[in-house]
Write a structure and sequence with these properties.
This protein has twelve helices and 22 strands. The protein is α/β, with parallel strands linked by helices.
């Protein structure tokens, strides 16, 4: 049976917790090559050139081609952006010591940094990202088990240990038939931090199922509504109204009423209180008044592409759009600004656009920019098409080497339930040194987008 915590012990516990958070906040990860914060904030901004703007006028949606550190430094100078980004999601390299290629074996990026070099690479970008974040903003950082523990200490240092919210565990794939002497690795991690205690939050819930709703085991005879019974008291002694008698009863020792006696009378009048045969009151919680059960910190339903019907771009390490949908809906509102400075295949940008959020994307990989622009024009394709194309068994399927080779094929598929709204409401910027190659990509995008509309 649960027992209350005496006031003195509770106060001591709260003080111990506060001291423990303060101790965590003072912890730092020291390593060779760690730059002072002031040096990072003085990073030379990129010399960016705007190469495309929607003919309808200025757009808050921006895609940048270039080194994200320098471009983030550039964004710090823009008062429309600095301090106004509501949500950041980043899926950076994982320090795998590997080179990554698309499904067509086109080179995407190198993930060769390790140790202190990798930690500083991430840290410098986190310092700039915090400055861009709104006071009520949130950041989600996606990593695997190799560096997540190191980077959590860095995030505690930059954002404050008190602003740590969750380390979300995601099931990334189906079980593996390992022959090595270790447990199968089917998870990765998402570190969730906020800039302050007052942050944008829309509580995500999962729909009720018969299994999840078992606690709602009682049926109200008159209405037929399902409900569960919960105590009317809570731990801790109170000297105000909630510590006074109600209906001749005092709350149990060491506890107080959750509501004032007047409020309890009102609830009872509305039939919200259940009385047991021995006169013990309980509060009724109705199943139909809850949209669902709150989402927990283990996410099982957002695996990477795992069957032939999943629609993808073919870019390596591409994440599930539903994963981004959950994050964006939980930590932002329509009209908010979302930033992803490791944009990759453009999943964050495409999902943000579909949810009526504004977005900023940055990447320095030519293949990433190519993939994003292609996605903006014609969307994604079934994973099976990429496999068939690679094996040379299917004709008429596009190749990543030709940005819009499958425009005709993709448009025809719209009649069978595949819908895509082309994205053109954005501005495209490139580092001055990348203008020539950017113009080639934009030329293909403009042709593909026009073809996709016809």
């Amino acid at each position: 049976m649960a027992t209350g915590i005496p006031k003195k012990r509770q106060q001591d516990k709260e003080m111990l917790f506060a001291n423990s958070v303060s101790s965590i906040s003072s912890m730092k990860l020291e390593y060779l090559g760690k730059k002072p914060k002031s040096t990072v904030l003085d990073t030379t901004p990129a010399n960016v050139v705007r190469l495309w703007a929607n003919p309808d006028g200025h757009s808050p949606n921006r895609l940048f081609f270039g080194d994200n550190l320098k471009i983030l430094s550039t964004l710090l100078l823009n008062p429309e952006i600095c301090g106004n980004v509501r949500l950041i999601y980043i899926d950076p390299p994982f320090a795998t010591q590997s080179a990554f290629h698309s499904r067509n074996l086109d080179h995407a990026y190198e993930d060769t940094l390790c140790g202190s070099e990798y930690i500083e690479f991430i840290r410098e970008r986190l310092i700039l990202l915090r400055e861009l974040l709104a006071e009520d903003g949130s950041i989600y950082l996606h990593l695997d088990e190799k560096m997540v523990f190191h980077i959590k200490i860095i995030m505690d240092e930059i954002f404050g240990a008190k602003n740590y919210r969750n380390c979300i565990i995601r099931k990334k794939c189906n079980p593996k038939n390992y022959t090595r002497k270790k447990f199968g690795n089917i998870s990765d991690y998402i570190l969730f931090y906020t800039k302050s205690d007052n942050f944008s939050w829309n509580r995500p819930v999962e729909a009720w199922t018969e299994e999840r709703s078992k606690e709602y085991q009682y049926i109200e005879p008159i209405t037929g509504r399902r409900f569960m019974k919960v105590p009317l008291h809570a731990p801790g002694v109170r000297n105000g109204e909630t510590g006074k008698p109600w209906r001749g009863m005092m709350p149990p020792p060491g506890k107080h009423w959750q509501f004032t006696p007047a409020k309890l009378d009102e609830m009872d009048a509305r039939g919200k209180i259940y009385w047991s045969t021995n006169g013990n009151p309980r509060r009724k919680i109705y199943l139909d008044e809850n949209a669902g059960i709150g989402v927990q910190d283990i996410w099982m339903d957002f695996r990477d592409a795992h069957n032939q019907n999943v629609r993808i771009t073919g870019y390596p390490t591409e994440k599930n759009p539903d994963l981004l949908k959950r994050i964006i809906e939980a930590s932002s509102q329509p009209g908010d600004l979302i930033l992803d400075c490791f944009s990759g295949s453009g999943t964050t940008l495409a999902v943000a656009a579909s949810l009526n959020r504004f977005w900023i994307g940055i990447d320095d990989s030519p293949l990433a920019i190519k993939t994003i622009l292609r996605r903006f024009a014609i969307g994604t394709e079934p994973m099976g098409d990429f496999v068939s194309q690679r094996n040379g068994k299917k004709e008429g399927i596009s190749s990543q080497s030709s940005l819009f080779a499958s425009i005709e094929s993709t448009v025809k598929q719209k009649g069978v339930g595949i819908e895509h709204q082309p994205i053109s409401n954005f501005e495209f910027f490139a580092d001055a040194t990348l203008v020539e190659s950017s113009n080639d990509l934009l030329s293909e995008w403009k042709t593909g987008y026009t073809s996709g509309e016809s």
